[in-house]
Amino acid sequence: MRIVIVEDEAAIREGMVKLLHQINPQYEVVGKAVDGQSGYELIRSVRPDLIIVDIRMPDMNGLAMIRKLQEEQVRCKVLVISAYSEFEYAREAIELGIINYLLKPLKISELKKALDKVDQEIRRDQHKEYGFSLENIFMGCINGQLKPDAYFHEKTREKYGFTVQEPAELFMVWLGNGYEAQKETAKGLLEHVADHTVKFAANIRELKGWEMLLMILYRQSGGESQLTYFEKSVVPMLCDNLKKPVVCVWRRIEQLLDMSRVLQEMRKDLEWHLCSPDRTLIYREAIQKQQIVPIKYPLELEDRAKRALREKNWEELVLCYERLYEYLVQETHLPSQIKESLIRFNWSLVSSQKEKKEESELHIQKILQRIASADTWSQIKQGMVEFMGILDYSEPKLEEPSVSDLIHRAKVLIRKYYNQGITLEETARKLFVSEEYLSAQFKKETGNTFTETVRKYRIKKVKELLVETHLKMNQIAELAGYSDPKYMSRVFKEEVGMLPTEYRKEVQ
After folding, report:
1. For 278-417, where are the alpha helices, taking DSSP H only?
2. Which one is predicted more confidently, 459 or 127?
3. Which of 82-86, 136-140, 460-464, 492-496 has the lowest mean pLDDT?
4. What is the mean pLDDT of residues 480-492?
5. For residues 286 and 295, what is the distance between their CA atoms, to the nearest angstrom?
6. pLDDT confidence of residue 84
7. Which of 90, 31, 85, 103 is nearest to 63 (CA)?
8. Fewer C-beta within 10 Å: the chain N or C terminus?
9. Residues contacting residue 119 through CB under 8 Å, at least 6 positions apart
10. Cα 388-449-323 angle, rounded to 5 deg
11. Where do the HTH araC/xylS-type domain residues begin and end (predicted)?
């Protein structure tokens, strides 16, 4: 506890310093003054926790000093020590809120009791002050546990210039499985937005369980909405600087105290991303304006997919799924209907394979449940990768049993189409994953990049044609997927260490 002593008698003043140290060595006397005027200036400068002050002093008495400090909002605890017990002094002290009043000569036991009381009051006030931190205020609103009273509202307005009864706007940024990798970058971008405006104050919270960041816009200038600014400027900026998935949701609330309930609604609004283009800000007014069209389930496409599955025609099956996705986004449908259609389509394919259904039913149900609760296409496609691994239409895993079904199917595609200019983008599309994800997993599981693997298959094919045929270089290049025989020769030499013609001679 930091203490200032204001006393005109030197002996009492110095004796008080020694006595305080004896009572509690943790007490720190940060200043001493001989009259009210010098005490006033000292206290304004050092801002102590406690003032021990006499009443009758030259220039300015102790009560006048306290009154002046209070008028200037200098808040300190006060312990009055006086040789006078007149009623007027006591009444004036009470009016100033001074409840600690001791008469000279002091009794050590009474002083110790008074100091303990003040210490407890300071600790209690500090605890309350912690409760008034912006972090605690907003977290209380988020989790719905804040129960403010009139004093709370008064204190919040006094300290921060707003109350939790005022309206605000919420901006939610969902990062999905990229949350941990991108949250600091996203947070920095949002902080930059907040730092370069005077139209609102902002507080950014991490909602880890939801894989998203929340930006709370409060103390808005003139109550002006920032919806247009965020829709036209902030959302595109985030999408340009962050990797997918990035989904943004907006909502205005009547008072900050409604935040817990409104966040649940915003979390539900996230699924409207299924009906919206990328880089779109999702908000309630835009949702309400959409013309919703009921889905007519594509039975003909389902039958076509079943036939492809029976015939183990993988390309046709993938094409059916592509047509299904295109159909589901042609018009605006309810997100729940989109997911119901996907689940029905998938279940119909599994049901057509009875042995597969019995073998993997629990796994299939978990995948379909994830699709049912999905909010974005990236979540749906993650489930689809697992689901398609269950369907029995790919080549058997004769090698590399350690690689995942996804990479196995990618390698099957490479083997089939390496000589037709297959690309990473095309392969990712056929496997319902992003290019970035497929590229990273391919390198992680095989040790080679996608491009390196395609190149190795082509070189292998060139070797076979050089040894087993008498074809010319331009014919071999065409069969191996090279449009230029000179380029093929250069790549072959980089890989093998000799030109194709030299290789043919050496082997023969």
Report:
1. 284-289, 299-310, 314-330, 335-351, 354-372, 377-390, 405-417
2. 459
3. 82-86
4. 88
5. 20
6. 65
7. 90
8. C
9. 1
10. 30
11. 408-506
